[in-house]
Amino acid sequence: MIIKKGIRRQIVLHYFLVVFIALLLIEVIFLIALRSYYYDTVYNHMVNHIRTANDFYQPFRLTSSDNVNQLSEMVRHFELYNTELQILNPAGQVLSTSTGFEIEQTIKTSDVTQALAGNTSRWIGKQQGTGQIVMAVSQSVSNGFENTYILRYVTSLEYVNDKLMKMTLFAVSIGAAVLAIVLAFSIGLANSIVKPLNNITTVSAQMAKGKFNVRIKGDYKYELGELSSTLNYMAQEIVRSNQVKDDFISSISHELRTPLTSIKGWSETLDSGGYDPEETKIGMQIISKETDRLIGLVEELLDFSKLQQNEMKLVKGIVNLRELLQEIMLNLWTKAEKKGVQIKLESDEKPIIYGDVNRLKQVFLNIVDNAVKFSHENGVINLYFAMEEKFVIVTVQDHGIGISDEHLRRVKDRFFQVNPLNGGTGLGLAITQQLVELHGGTMEMESELGHGTAVIVKLPLPEGKIPMAGGLENGEEDAAGPMA
Predict the structure, then answer these.
(1) Structural domains of the chain, ranges and CATH numbers in brackets
(2) What is the residue-averaged pLDDT of the chain?
(3) How many of the other CB atoms lie within 10 Å of CB of 114?
(4) I need a surface site. Which of 22, 45, 197, 453 has the fewest CB within 10 A?
């Protein structure tokens, strides 16, 4: 089976290679130990026989000095079943064997050399003539006179080696079966990882081509599950952003078309002539009003673009928040009076902060203007100050229509409008929040549908002494002192 290049192949090869090396080491060690055990068993059996036979033979070794009788007696006492006994002289010449065959060559193997030195040792190799693998064990024996002989036992290892070969084949078979199981397991494991990845890759490729309606299906676990959830969430957000963008384009097109239509209509009317001065004045006022409206829309878009590109620069200075809010109340007084809405500043605090007065005016003008827009007829808007150790908190509370929980989570998103029919670009609160954050503050909103909305702006106070209108809290320095 050929596995194409990829993660599946790497996983299978890594698992297979690790298990293969581990099995190879185990089997090699096992077979070496098994071979040593069998060979040692044969060797120990012959050595024990030599010792036992030698102890039995010693009382009779002085009974005869005749060489022929001595050799026959030694063969009778020392022979071992299924093993050839050779009696050698110190020169390595074979004097007699238990098989009766004469061996003419001189034997100089390591076991014979060790036996002459008084040790018992073994030699494993091919026997001359037959070519069989044999083990030879030699030991020197004295006949009680002047002669010294070497008893050399030779046994075939063919049967032992045959047993070892069968056990080797059995071990290899078990190893092959284990490797086959590991291979199947590693392929299954690789598929459990690769198939989800292939699915995720396929869906991601479709998303890359703009098909954001597709989703990754499957209950994946751990990192793969997190990855699929993230990609699905990304596609969902892109779809939502595209929808918001489309809604914005539709809305801004309508917003731009309305004033342009008015300007064009009155321009053509005035250009035709024949109207009295009063109508001309009304037409010019409408043109001026709609032009200001267009300028406001364009400036809002430019502000948002600057904020997105981090190009908005603040011109900071001392700002009296109480005076700033009072100025905003005057600016919106006419609009509020038309709905019978009262705007009340409830606090006596006079906080002074360090910021851009024009941008802060833009922030609170947008917040209070929204409060007026969404208040009920004859409603009340309350403005509060609250002082903390390092912050001043400004709260704008209306008792109007409120915002649902679903819309409250998105109301500060760019281009989002709770009711597109109310007009606007949907950028006002998004710009407001970013301007507050540029001042190092935060903006939060709390609302209950049908009961009103509270916008809470938290702005940092200057470091050190808190400046107040008319001087510091302890009156030691001028209000502008810390800023100098």
Answers:
(1) 7-163 (3.30.450.20), 222-308 (1.10.287.130), 317-466 (3.30.565.10)
(2) 80
(3) 18
(4) 22
